[in-house]
Amino acid sequence: NCWVALNGKVYDLSEFMDRHPGGPTTILAWAGKDASKFFNDIHKGVKIDAYLRPEAFLGDLGVDENLMSDEFWHTLREARIAEIRQEVDRLLNQCTETHKADSIPRLLQDKNIDPLLKTKLQRLETQKRAALDAEDFAKAAEVKRAMEDLLSHEDHAHKHGVPLGFTSSDIPLSEVARHNKPHDCWIAICGEVYDLTDFLQHHPEQRNSILAWAGRDATPMWDKIPGRFPSKQWMEFFMRPEFKTGKVGPEPPVDAIIRELRELHDELHRLQGPSKEEIEAVKTAVKVPGKTDAPTLSEESRFPKLAEISAGKDLPFFSRAEVAQHNT
Protein backbone atom coordinates (compact mmCIF):
# COMPACT_ATOMS: atom_id res chain seq x y z
CA ASN A 1 0.00 0.00 0.00
CA CYS A 2 2.45 2.63 -1.26
CA TRP A 3 1.23 6.09 -2.29
CA VAL A 4 3.68 8.75 -3.49
CA ALA A 5 3.06 12.36 -4.55
CA LEU A 6 4.89 13.51 -7.71
CA ASN A 7 4.57 16.97 -9.25
CA GLY A 8 1.12 17.69 -7.89
CA LYS A 9 -0.29 14.20 -8.56
CA VAL A 10 -0.76 11.18 -6.32
CA TYR A 11 0.19 7.69 -7.54
CA ASP A 12 -0.25 4.20 -6.08
CA LEU A 13 3.17 2.62 -6.73
CA SER A 14 2.44 -0.68 -4.95
CA GLU A 15 2.41 -2.61 -8.24
CA PHE A 16 5.29 -0.65 -9.81
CA MET A 17 7.75 -1.29 -6.96
CA ASP A 18 8.74 -4.77 -8.14
CA ARG A 19 9.54 -3.60 -11.66
CA HIS A 20 11.21 -0.32 -10.71
CA PRO A 21 14.68 -0.41 -12.32
CA GLY A 22 16.26 0.85 -9.10
CA GLY A 23 14.47 -1.70 -6.93
CA PRO A 24 11.68 -1.18 -4.38
CA THR A 25 13.85 0.36 -1.65
CA THR A 26 13.95 3.85 -3.14
CA ILE A 27 10.19 3.96 -3.66
CA LEU A 28 9.50 2.67 -0.15
CA ALA A 29 11.72 5.43 1.25
CA TRP A 30 9.25 7.97 -0.18
CA ALA A 31 6.05 6.06 0.64
CA GLY A 32 3.42 8.49 1.90
CA LYS A 33 5.55 11.52 0.99
CA ASP A 34 6.02 14.10 -1.77
CA ALA A 35 9.03 12.92 -3.81
CA SER A 36 8.80 15.58 -6.54
CA LYS A 37 12.16 17.25 -5.95
CA PHE A 38 14.03 13.96 -5.55
CA PHE A 39 12.36 12.52 -8.67
CA ASN A 40 13.00 15.59 -10.83
CA ASP A 41 16.67 15.76 -9.83
CA ILE A 42 17.26 12.16 -10.94
CA HIS A 43 14.78 11.78 -13.82
CA LYS A 44 14.90 15.12 -15.59
CA GLY A 45 12.30 15.31 -18.34
CA VAL A 46 10.91 11.82 -17.62
CA LYS A 47 7.11 11.47 -17.67
CA ILE A 48 6.24 8.95 -14.98
CA ASP A 49 2.84 8.20 -16.58
CA ALA A 50 4.59 6.46 -19.48
CA TYR A 51 5.85 3.76 -17.09
CA LEU A 52 2.72 3.26 -14.97
CA ARG A 53 -0.61 1.64 -15.56
CA PRO A 54 -3.53 4.09 -15.90
CA GLU A 55 -5.07 2.93 -12.62
CA ALA A 56 -1.90 3.94 -10.72
CA PHE A 57 -2.95 7.61 -10.95
CA LEU A 58 -5.20 8.30 -7.96
CA GLY A 59 -5.84 12.04 -8.29
CA ASP A 60 -4.38 15.49 -7.78
CA LEU A 61 -2.51 16.44 -4.62
CA GLY A 62 -4.74 18.62 -2.41
CA VAL A 63 -3.87 21.73 -0.44
CA ASP A 64 -3.72 21.36 3.34
CA GLU A 65 -6.34 24.03 3.95
CA ASN A 66 -8.88 22.18 1.79
CA LEU A 67 -8.34 18.71 3.20
CA MET A 68 -10.91 17.06 5.44
CA SER A 69 -10.03 16.13 9.00
CA ASP A 70 -8.80 12.65 9.90
CA GLU A 71 -11.94 12.06 11.98
CA PHE A 72 -14.27 12.91 9.10
CA TRP A 73 -12.24 10.77 6.69
CA HIS A 74 -12.44 7.73 9.00
CA THR A 75 -16.18 8.30 9.40
CA LEU A 76 -16.60 8.21 5.61
CA ARG A 77 -14.35 5.15 5.38
CA GLU A 78 -16.38 3.20 7.95
CA ALA A 79 -19.62 4.18 6.20
CA ARG A 80 -18.24 2.97 2.86
CA ILE A 81 -17.09 -0.34 4.40
CA ALA A 82 -20.59 -0.97 5.75
CA GLU A 83 -22.08 -0.04 2.38
CA ILE A 84 -19.77 -2.46 0.52
CA ARG A 85 -20.61 -5.33 2.86
CA GLN A 86 -24.32 -4.80 2.28
CA GLU A 87 -23.77 -4.69 -1.48
CA VAL A 88 -21.69 -7.90 -1.38
CA ASP A 89 -24.43 -9.71 0.55
CA ARG A 90 -27.03 -8.53 -1.97
CA LEU A 91 -24.96 -9.70 -4.96
CA LEU A 92 -24.21 -13.07 -3.35
CA ASN A 93 -27.94 -13.67 -3.01
CA GLN A 94 -28.38 -12.90 -6.74
CA CYS A 95 -25.37 -14.88 -7.92
CA THR A 96 -26.20 -18.24 -9.48
CA GLU A 97 -22.54 -19.26 -9.90
CA THR A 98 -20.14 -20.23 -7.12
CA HIS A 99 -17.89 -17.28 -6.42
CA LYS A 100 -14.28 -18.48 -6.34
CA ALA A 101 -11.19 -16.35 -5.85
CA ASP A 102 -9.27 -15.83 -9.10
CA SER A 103 -6.01 -14.58 -7.57
CA ILE A 104 -3.88 -15.39 -4.54
CA PRO A 105 -4.56 -12.05 -2.75
CA ARG A 106 -8.31 -12.62 -3.14
CA LEU A 107 -7.93 -16.23 -2.02
CA LEU A 108 -6.15 -15.10 1.14
CA GLN A 109 -9.09 -12.79 1.88
CA ASP A 110 -11.60 -15.65 1.56
CA LYS A 111 -13.02 -16.42 5.01
CA ASN A 112 -13.89 -19.98 3.94
CA ILE A 113 -10.34 -20.93 2.95
CA ASP A 114 -8.74 -23.88 4.75
CA PRO A 115 -6.64 -22.39 7.62
CA LEU A 116 -3.70 -24.70 6.90
CA LEU A 117 -3.71 -23.76 3.20
CA LYS A 118 -3.93 -20.08 4.12
CA THR A 119 -0.95 -20.34 6.47
CA LYS A 120 1.18 -22.04 3.81
CA LEU A 121 0.19 -19.51 1.15
CA GLN A 122 0.92 -16.55 3.42
CA ARG A 123 4.32 -17.98 4.25
CA LEU A 124 5.19 -18.55 0.58
CA GLU A 125 3.87 -15.11 -0.41
CA THR A 126 6.12 -13.51 2.22
CA GLN A 127 9.12 -15.52 1.02
CA LYS A 128 8.45 -14.32 -2.53
CA ARG A 129 8.17 -10.72 -1.32
CA ALA A 130 11.48 -11.00 0.54
CA ALA A 131 13.18 -12.57 -2.50
CA LEU A 132 11.95 -9.73 -4.73
CA ASP A 133 13.18 -7.12 -2.26
CA ALA A 134 16.59 -8.82 -2.30
CA GLU A 135 16.41 -8.96 -6.13
CA ASP A 136 16.83 -12.74 -5.97
CA PHE A 137 14.53 -13.39 -8.93
CA ALA A 138 15.51 -17.04 -9.29
CA LYS A 139 14.37 -17.66 -5.72
CA ALA A 140 11.13 -15.70 -6.35
CA ALA A 141 10.40 -17.87 -9.40
CA GLU A 142 11.07 -21.01 -7.32
CA VAL A 143 8.63 -19.84 -4.61
CA LYS A 144 6.03 -19.03 -7.28
CA ARG A 145 6.25 -22.59 -8.64
CA ALA A 146 5.86 -23.94 -5.10
CA MET A 147 2.66 -21.90 -4.70
CA GLU A 148 1.30 -23.24 -7.99
CA ASP A 149 2.11 -26.83 -6.94
CA LEU A 150 0.30 -26.26 -3.65
CA LEU A 151 -2.81 -24.82 -5.33
CA SER A 152 -2.90 -27.51 -8.01
CA HIS A 153 -2.99 -30.31 -5.42
CA GLU A 154 -6.17 -32.37 -5.63
CA ASP A 155 -7.15 -31.31 -2.11
CA HIS A 156 -7.24 -27.61 -3.05
CA ALA A 157 -7.74 -27.35 -6.83
CA HIS A 158 -11.56 -27.33 -6.62
CA LYS A 159 -11.70 -24.60 -3.97
CA HIS A 160 -10.40 -21.68 -6.05
CA GLY A 161 -10.29 -20.18 -9.52
CA VAL A 162 -6.66 -19.05 -9.53
CA PRO A 163 -5.17 -19.74 -13.00
CA LEU A 164 -2.17 -22.08 -12.80
CA GLY A 165 -0.60 -21.78 -16.21
CA PHE A 166 -2.08 -21.08 -19.62
CA THR A 167 -2.08 -23.89 -22.16
CA SER A 168 -4.12 -22.24 -24.93
CA SER A 169 -2.37 -20.59 -27.86
CA ASP A 170 -4.79 -17.63 -27.59
CA ILE A 171 -3.85 -15.63 -24.49
CA PRO A 172 -6.06 -12.73 -23.35
CA LEU A 173 -4.39 -9.53 -22.16
CA SER A 174 -5.93 -10.05 -18.72
CA GLU A 175 -3.76 -13.18 -18.40
CA VAL A 176 -0.69 -11.29 -19.66
CA ALA A 177 -1.32 -8.66 -16.96
CA ARG A 178 -0.82 -11.29 -14.25
CA HIS A 179 2.80 -11.79 -15.33
CA ASN A 180 4.19 -8.37 -14.51
CA LYS A 181 7.17 -9.02 -12.23
CA PRO A 182 10.92 -9.51 -12.83
CA HIS A 183 10.61 -13.21 -11.99
CA ASP A 184 7.53 -13.65 -14.20
CA CYS A 185 7.56 -11.26 -17.16
CA TRP A 186 5.21 -11.56 -20.15
CA ILE A 187 4.81 -8.86 -22.80
CA ALA A 188 2.47 -8.63 -25.79
CA ILE A 189 3.98 -7.23 -29.00
CA CYS A 190 2.12 -6.95 -32.31
CA GLY A 191 -0.39 -9.67 -31.46
CA GLU A 192 2.16 -12.11 -30.02
CA VAL A 193 2.86 -12.89 -26.34
CA TYR A 194 6.47 -13.36 -25.23
CA ASP A 195 7.87 -14.69 -21.94
CA LEU A 196 11.01 -12.62 -21.28
CA THR A 197 11.66 -13.88 -17.74
CA ASP A 198 14.76 -15.86 -18.71
CA PHE A 199 16.03 -13.00 -20.88
CA LEU A 200 15.92 -10.60 -17.91
CA GLN A 201 18.06 -12.96 -15.83
CA HIS A 202 20.84 -12.87 -18.45
CA HIS A 203 20.48 -9.24 -19.57
CA PRO A 204 20.04 -7.11 -16.43
CA GLU A 205 21.20 -4.02 -18.37
CA GLN A 206 17.87 -4.06 -20.26
CA ARG A 207 15.68 -4.35 -17.18
CA ASN A 208 14.49 -0.76 -17.35
CA SER A 209 13.02 -0.78 -20.86
CA ILE A 210 11.52 -4.28 -20.58
CA LEU A 211 9.98 -4.11 -17.10
CA ALA A 212 8.26 -0.85 -18.02
CA TRP A 213 6.02 -3.01 -20.26
CA ALA A 214 5.83 -6.16 -18.10
CA GLY A 215 2.30 -7.55 -18.24
CA ARG A 216 1.25 -5.02 -20.89
CA ASP A 217 0.83 -4.63 -24.64
CA ALA A 218 3.94 -2.82 -25.93
CA THR A 219 2.64 -2.51 -29.50
CA PRO A 220 2.07 1.30 -29.22
CA MET A 221 5.86 1.70 -28.72
CA TRP A 222 6.78 -0.59 -31.64
CA ASP A 223 9.74 0.81 -33.61
CA LYS A 224 9.45 4.24 -31.93
CA ILE A 225 13.16 3.99 -31.05
CA PRO A 226 15.04 1.84 -33.61
CA GLY A 227 17.40 -0.63 -32.00
CA ARG A 228 15.76 -0.35 -28.58
CA PHE A 229 13.03 -2.50 -27.07
CA PRO A 230 10.52 -2.97 -28.64
CA SER A 231 11.71 -2.61 -32.24
CA LYS A 232 12.30 -4.76 -35.30
CA GLN A 233 16.09 -4.55 -34.93
CA TRP A 234 15.91 -5.52 -31.25
CA MET A 235 13.67 -8.50 -31.99
CA GLU A 236 15.95 -9.77 -34.76
CA PHE A 237 19.03 -9.53 -32.54
CA PHE A 238 17.75 -10.73 -29.14
CA MET A 239 14.51 -12.66 -29.61
CA ARG A 240 14.61 -16.46 -29.52
CA PRO A 241 11.83 -18.80 -30.72
CA GLU A 242 11.27 -20.29 -27.26
CA PHE A 243 10.34 -16.86 -25.89
CA LYS A 244 7.10 -16.91 -27.88
CA THR A 245 4.25 -18.14 -25.67
CA GLY A 246 1.23 -17.65 -27.92
CA LYS A 247 -1.00 -15.13 -29.67
CA VAL A 248 -3.11 -12.42 -28.09
CA GLY A 249 -6.68 -13.72 -27.90
CA PRO A 250 -10.10 -12.41 -26.89
CA GLU A 251 -11.05 -11.95 -23.27
CA PRO A 252 -13.02 -14.85 -21.74
CA PRO A 253 -16.61 -14.05 -20.77
CA VAL A 254 -17.06 -13.18 -17.10
CA ASP A 255 -20.41 -12.96 -15.34
CA ALA A 256 -21.21 -9.30 -14.56
CA ILE A 257 -22.11 -10.10 -10.95
CA ILE A 258 -18.86 -12.02 -10.43
CA ARG A 259 -16.88 -9.10 -11.87
CA GLU A 260 -18.65 -6.63 -9.57
CA LEU A 261 -18.07 -8.88 -6.56
CA ARG A 262 -14.34 -8.99 -7.27
CA GLU A 263 -14.16 -5.20 -7.58
CA LEU A 264 -16.04 -4.75 -4.30
CA HIS A 265 -13.81 -7.26 -2.49
CA ASP A 266 -10.71 -5.43 -3.74
CA GLU A 267 -12.08 -2.05 -2.59
CA LEU A 268 -13.04 -3.50 0.79
CA HIS A 269 -9.53 -4.87 1.31
CA ARG A 270 -7.97 -1.49 0.41
CA LEU A 271 -10.21 0.34 2.89
CA GLN A 272 -9.75 -2.15 5.72
CA GLY A 273 -6.02 -2.67 5.20
CA PRO A 274 -4.19 -5.89 6.11
CA SER A 275 -5.80 -8.05 8.77
CA LYS A 276 -4.09 -9.02 12.02
CA GLU A 277 -3.65 -12.53 10.61
CA GLU A 278 -1.84 -11.19 7.53
CA ILE A 279 0.47 -9.02 9.64
CA GLU A 280 1.23 -11.90 11.98
CA ALA A 281 1.92 -14.21 9.01
CA VAL A 282 4.52 -11.80 7.67
CA LYS A 283 6.21 -11.59 11.06
CA THR A 284 6.39 -15.35 11.57
CA ALA A 285 7.14 -16.38 7.98
CA VAL A 286 10.23 -18.45 7.28
CA LYS A 287 13.08 -16.25 6.07
CA VAL A 288 14.52 -16.71 2.60
CA PRO A 289 17.72 -18.80 2.76
CA GLY A 290 20.81 -16.78 1.95
CA LYS A 291 19.22 -13.44 2.68
CA THR A 292 21.35 -11.49 5.11
CA ASP A 293 19.63 -9.29 7.63
CA ALA A 294 20.78 -5.76 8.26
CA PRO A 295 22.20 -5.17 11.77
CA THR A 296 19.53 -4.14 14.25
CA LEU A 297 19.97 -0.60 15.55
CA SER A 298 19.12 0.41 19.07
CA GLU A 299 16.17 2.67 19.83
CA GLU A 300 18.58 5.50 20.71
CA SER A 301 20.36 5.20 17.35
CA ARG A 302 17.14 5.06 15.35
CA PHE A 303 15.44 7.87 17.27
CA PRO A 304 18.06 10.30 18.63
CA LYS A 305 15.39 12.61 20.11
CA LEU A 306 13.67 9.80 22.00
CA ALA A 307 15.46 10.57 25.27
CA GLU A 308 14.39 14.21 25.17
CA ILE A 309 10.78 13.29 24.47
CA SER A 310 10.67 10.72 27.27
CA ALA A 311 12.22 13.30 29.61
CA GLY A 312 9.28 15.63 28.98
CA LYS A 313 11.17 18.24 26.95
CA ASP A 314 9.26 19.96 24.17
CA LEU A 315 10.75 19.70 20.69
CA PRO A 316 10.73 22.77 18.41
CA PHE A 317 7.81 23.15 15.99
CA PHE A 318 8.42 24.27 12.42
CA SER A 319 5.79 25.62 10.04
CA ARG A 320 5.52 24.39 6.45
CA ALA A 321 6.99 27.69 5.24
CA GLU A 322 10.09 27.21 7.41
CA VAL A 323 10.53 23.63 6.24
CA ALA A 324 10.17 24.74 2.61
CA GLN A 325 13.19 27.03 2.99
CA HIS A 326 15.46 24.01 3.59
CA ASN A 327 15.22 22.35 0.18
CA THR A 328 18.76 22.21 -1.15
Automatic annotation (TrEMBL):
InterPro entries reported for this sequence: Cyt_B5-like_heme/steroid-bd, Cyt_B5-like_heme/steroid_sf, Cyt_B5_heme-BS, Cytochrome_b5
GO molecular function: heme binding; metal ion binding
The keyword Iron appears for this protein: yes
Cytochrome b5 heme-binding domain location: 1-62, 168-249
Keyword Heme: yes
Ranges that cross the membrane: none
Any GO CC annotation of this UniProt entry: membrane
Record keywords, A-Z: Heme, Iron, Metal-binding
Family, similarity comment: Belongs to the cytochrome b5 family.
Protein name: CYB2 protein
Native species: Symbiodinium pilosum
